[in-house]
Amino acid sequence: MDGEMEKKIEESVLEILERSDMQEMTEYKVRKLASEKLGIDLSEASRKKLVRRVVETFLEQQAQQQQAVEEEEASEEEEEEGSNNRVDGKEYDDDGDLIICRLSEKRRVTIQDFRGKTLVSIREFYNKDGKFLPTSKGISLTAEQWSSFKKNVPAIDEAIKKMEDRL
Q1: Which tens digit of pLDDT belongs to each residue from 146-167?
Q2: CA–CA distance, 50 with 139 (Å, rounded to integer)
Q3: pLDDT, tens digit, for every residue of 14-56?
Q4: CB 130 within 8 A of CB 80
Q5: Which of 39, 53, 57, 77 is the most exposed place for a label (fewest CB within 10 A)?
Q6: What's the N-to-C CA distance of the chain in angstroms?
Q7: 3-class SS at 84?
Q8: Is the pTM of this model over 0.70?
Q9: Which residues make Cβ contacts (< 8 Å) with residue 108, sequence separation at least 6?
Q10: 103: closest CA among 132, 77, 123?
C-alpha cells in the first residue's frame, strides 16, 4: 500500500470518527463506512491494521483531551473552594470548620466547635450556588465518643474482613 493511499484511508477514518457517536461506533463500522466512502476493500490485513492503528490513536487522543479537561475543571474547583479557606496550610469549610479529610466528593470529616464542645463530624454535603453545605446525613461525635470509636476500629476492621471472607 503506497503512502498516498494510506493517507486517504487515515483521513477518511478520522473524518468518520470525528462525526460519530463513540458510544455506538465500532472499528468494524468505521472500516465498513471508510470502505464505502473510498470504494476500496479495507478488510485486507494491512489495511485492517492501518484502520485499527488510526482508531486506537484517535481514542487515545480523545481520552487524553478528556483527562486534561477533567483535571482543569478539578483544579478550578479546588482553587474556588480553597482560595479563601486555607489558613496555615489547613483547609476550612465555609462555616469555619476544619476539614480533616474528604472521604468522597460529597463526604467529609471535619472538626467543629459547637456550644463550646469539640465535635468530629462525618457528614455528607451538597453543592448550592457554588458552596458546599452540610446535610442531615451524618454523625457528630464528642471527643469522648470519638475516643471510644477509635479504640474499636480494630474490631470493626476484623468484622469487615470476616464478612468479606464469607462472600
Answers
A1: 999 999 999 999 999 989 888 7
A2: 58
A3: 999 999 888 888 999 999 999 999 999 998 999 999 999 999 9
A4: yes
A5: 39
A6: 55
A7: coil
A8: no
A9: 93, 99, 100, 101, 102, 121, 122, 123, 125
A10: 123
